[in-house]
Amino acid sequence: MSGLRQRLVALALVLPLLLFLGVFFAWPLVTMSAEAIPQSVVARGLPRTAAAAAAWDRTTPPTEAMREALVADLRAAPDDQALAGVVQTLNSAKSGYRTLIARTVAALRGGEGPADLAAIDRRWADPAFWRPIAAETANTRPDANLLAALDLRRDEDGTIRSLPEGASANRRILVRTFVIAGLVTLACLLIGLPYAMLMASLEGWRRQVLLAAVLLPLWTSLLVRTAAWFILLQDNGPVNGLLRAVGIGALPLIFNRTGVVVAMTHVLLPFMVLPIYSVLLGIPRNLMQAAGSMGAHPIRAFVEVLLPLSARGIVAGALLVFMAAIGYYITPALIGGPQDQMISSIIAFYALQTANWGMASALGLVLLAITIVLYAVYHRLSVDEPGRA
Amino acid sequence: MTDPFIRLDRVSKAFGGVTVVDDLDLTIGRGEFVSLLGPSGSGKTTILMMLAGFESPTAGTVSLDGARIDRLPPHRRNMGVVFQSYALFPHRTVAENVAFPLRMRGMARPEVAGRVARALDMVQLGAFADRKPAQLSGGQQQRVALARALVFEPAVVLMDEPLGALDKQLREQMQLDIRDIHRRLGLTIVFVTHDQGEALTMSDRVAVFNKGRIEQIATPREIYDHPRTRFVAEFLGETNLIDGVVDRAGAGTATIRVADGTAIEAATHHALASGEAVTVSLRPERLRLSPSAEAPNALPAAVADSVYHGDHIRVRIDAPTGSLIARTPRGAPEWDRGARTFATFAPGDCWVLPR
Amino acid sequence: MLRPVRLVFGLLATLFLLAPLVAILPLGFTASLFLEYPIPALSLRWMTELFTAEIWRRSIVNSLIVGAGTTLLATVLGTLAALGLRDRLLPLSGIVRIFCLLPMVVPAVVMGVGMQVLFVRLGLANSYLGVIVAHTVVAVPFVLVNVSAALAGIDRRVERAAASLGAAPATVLRTVTLPLALPGILSGAVFAFATSLDEVVLTLFVAGPNQRTLARQMFSTIRENISPAIAAAAFLFIAGTVLVAGAALLVRGRLSARG
Fold this sequence. Notes:
The complex is a heterotrimer of chains A (389), B (355) and C (259). Chain A is an all-alpha fold. Chain A folds into three domains: 1-32; 41-140, no CATH class; 170-383, MetI-like fold. Chain A has 19 helices and two strands. Chain A has helices spanning 3-36, 41-45, 47-53, 64-76, 80-93, 97-108, 117-120, 131-138, 144-149, 170-201, 204-219, 222-233, 238-245, 257-281, 286-293, 298-326, 330-335, 343-353, 357-383, and strands at 152-154, 160-162. Chain A has a two-stranded antiparallel ribbon with strand order 1-2. Chain A starts with a helix and ends in a 6-residue tail after the last helix. The relative contact order of chain A is 0.08. Chain B has two domains: 4-229, P-loop containing nucleotide triphosphate hydrolases (Rossmann fold, 3-Layer(aba) Sandwich); 238-354, CATH 2.40.50.100. Helix content of chain B is 24%, strand content 37%. Chain B contains eight helices and 20 strands. In chain B, the strands form four sheets. Chain B has a six-stranded mixed beta sheet, sandwiched between helices. In chain B, strands 13-12-11-14-20 form a five-stranded antiparallel beta sheet, with no helix packed on it. In chain B, strands 15-19-16-17-18 form a five-stranded antiparallel beta sheet, with no helix packed on it. Chain C has a single domain (43-258), classed as MetI-like (MetI-like fold), CATH 1.10.3720. Chain C has helices spanning 3-27, 45-52, 54-85, 93-101, 108-122, 128-152, 156-164, 169-198, 201-206, 214-224, 229-258. The chains are: A mainly alpha (389), B alpha+beta (355), C mainly alpha (259). The interface between A and C is large, with 79 and 79 residues. Chain A: Keywords: Cell membrane, Membrane, Transmembrane, Transmembrane helix, Transport. Chain A: It is a multi-pass membrane protein.
């Protein structure tokens, strides 16, 4: 029974999952984070030249350092394929790079030490052929996408400013995400807290029915539930039928904020009810009776006794609901209108429709950071010693 | 004790810096029934787990029949273990539970069946072979656990509070059964318990544990009548403890002077020196209440309280040496509060402990 | 005093929770072209459509392929890890566990973006393997949680008893630990299958047109041309989950009866 042996066995058991999640869960997140940092094709292909050109005034002839850097970059390029992107980008700024680069690479091949670029091609003596290189590599700063995700940008002098009103909607969507998640959390709390209390106060089959009513939706596919709300809330759906029957008349319930909040509340309600319920179960029933025996009105007893004791469950439930809600995609995508799309929808839009990985990743990073912070708080609460409110 | 069959030599065990077993020696003879008795946390269960192989000693050696076993994994130690709350396999029938150790030893099926049947008959559970443990009563589960630990004829059987979950009547029946099986099969049994009555009635020898050490190991009679330390005297049964100083030490007896000046004649095996601080242990059932002071030791006392207990009467008296408890047989005269009496006892009724 | 209020609230809340599930199922058997009440007549046309229309049939098959692969991979990886994390023998066991549960927390869209970029580089994009791997990432925490709970419920002494009776560690695992943890492993597997069946977001990011799953097909049908086929698919979904869960329960029951 050597401890080391047992530890090795434990390691061997955990390692497969750890490796799997390392490759297929952590690595994608790292990849995404890397994508969020923009790098121009030219800067990637000609890193030394990019660095050297940063100090250049773009009117005087290219400096010695720039020329040496370019020679080194071109010699370091593994093959023509690696430079294809560079040539394409530079060509779109000024034509002639295809032949220029090809000729230069051919001339440099096999050689070592300093080389006279102007002798290989006269165009290298012309600042006009260096300017696109400098422009392409200087424009992009590492935090450009992250700032853009928050509707910010860096000016020429480096100060961070807001984008002009209407230029981008990211910040508005971020605020909207918080608002919708907050509304859903509030709705869940308003229904979930009394529901959990009712469930804890009942016994026998009544409690079982209420518990089943929470668990059944939880076990049902999210997609099915969203589809069900789609059917219920549509203009000629059962809910509007009911409203018409009682004389209120049909209301617009789908493709707007109301529909999104209703459907998301339904989907997330179990996450509010269950933590509160489990905390309430641990509170001795006779506490409320004791409070009553000492003369406390039931409402007073609730505020003074039950509420503080169940605070843990309420906070845990609220965090859980809020955390899940800010990352929601499917329900807003299907039930909401254009004005109800949340940050996930925008990320999906950038990634799936416009192939703008940089922006998708930067927004993804923002969402990830918010979620991790909320989860850390939630975890802190849930591992705290029980019994402390 | 015959030959040293199980031997723990200077064994220590620490869990994360906390010493649970402290430099302990213990020798158990072949065929002996030894109880490890002590409060929880005294190290008795840890000793059992080290014998079974679930814990390894931090220092020291454990040997069985002359061979070291402290590096051997549990499944190669060939010891039958009866666990607290039995640890039956809930997913297997009674017969499968009992067959398990035989199958592990690669025994042929027909032989397994025969042995299982015999083992179940021994514990009178032949009719329950196809039940699941959950379908049995606590006492029946206990007997399955016993049959399972015995069926492969292990050299040693270890029992960890095996009767703790049973009610009083069942427990006493099982105590007799286990003692009977022990005699019949000539097993070596190490029995962990915190129930002193159980330890006294079942064992050849009792080891009293305290804070990771053995305070005393001896026969039940010796341990009860001649406890070596104050802890042992207090842990086994009820006792009155009177602090005093040795006035005169003789052969086998001593005169102890108590704070108020009273002198007590007491028997002792210890070599005592005059002026040594000691404690006199006086069992309540040895204390007699009598109207006259005609005894080697007679303390004038007043009755403070008298409580009827069915088979005896418990009387609390105030004597010059402090408050004492006496057990008087039923049928003895009832005592009124404040009644004057003498608490009398012979030197052999009390026992001197070093302090 | 508060009686009527409690009763009304309880009824309304239960109605809110259950109405959607009740409302969608009958529509799978409507004869109408629309998802509407009242149902004019009952018909199996939409059920038939699911199994005859190539796009639906294909997506059902894909869901079964991906679901089976995910269940297998997630159950094996999750069960092994739960065994390894059981005794907290490893340094940082707590942190390792949190890391393994993190896919439950990280928004699917965030994982999707990263996977889309990475899977192209790894050559996993638009492949069954890629979809299975992505689904396993989100399914495996459920297996870990379920199996860990089952292992925590096993009385340590039962395993020690097996060792004391002569079973080597591997034998203890095979004859005692795994059989006793089996209910947890089975629920973990059911959860993994259900997660895979329901997963849309990651599928959108990593699957190609050939790996279009039932959930993905439902998603775009609701989005683009809603039809009662949705309700029929929802029925299939619920029936599938109930069937798998029922099968798991049955196996569990059979195992505990046989021992």
